[in-house]
Amino acid sequence: MVVAKSEVGRDAAVYFRTARPLPSLVTVLALGYVAWVVLWPESIPFKSLGPLGSFTQYLLNHHHTLLHNGFWLAWMVHVGESLYAMVLCKYKGITDSQAQLLWFLQTFFFGIASLSILIAYRPKHQKRT
């Protein structure tokens, strides 16, 4: 079956797939918890969190600078991944601005859970006659 050039180009131009739910949920929960620890440590109910609370309290008491710097580094990595997603969109022929924005936002919030889908995408090429 030969696909018309306009159909092949259009499919690639608007390509977007949502990230898998489990890796996305893990990313959001981890970044959310670290944000809570770094930005509002006084509101954390350490005893109610069991072993996680004890570990968090230890990290806050002994490695606060590492937590703080790691939190901001994680967000910088997400920004870098998002910018790389934009580069990949252009490289892979995704030219629709809405699709590019969706890739940027999804990668910003979910990181590698989203970026891995874009990296694995192989656009279909038109058969030459």
From TrEMBL:
Q: What is its main location?
A: membrane
Name the domain of life this protein comes from: Eukaryota
- InterPro entries assigned to the protein according to its UniProt record, in alphabetical order: TMEM254
The gene for this chain is LOC109699848
| Compartments (UniProt record) | Membrane
Q: Kindly give the Pfam families that the UniProt entry links to this protein.
A: TMEM254 (PF14934)
PANTHER family found in the cross-reference section: TRANSMEMBRANE PROTEIN 254 (PTHR34104:SF3)
Identify one Gene Ontology CC term for this UniProt entry: membrane
* Ranges that cross the membrane: 21-39, 101-121
Q: Which UniProt keywords apply?
A: Membrane, Transmembrane, Transmembrane helix
The name on file for this protein is Transmembrane protein 254
Q: How does it sit in the membrane?
A: Multi-pass membrane protein
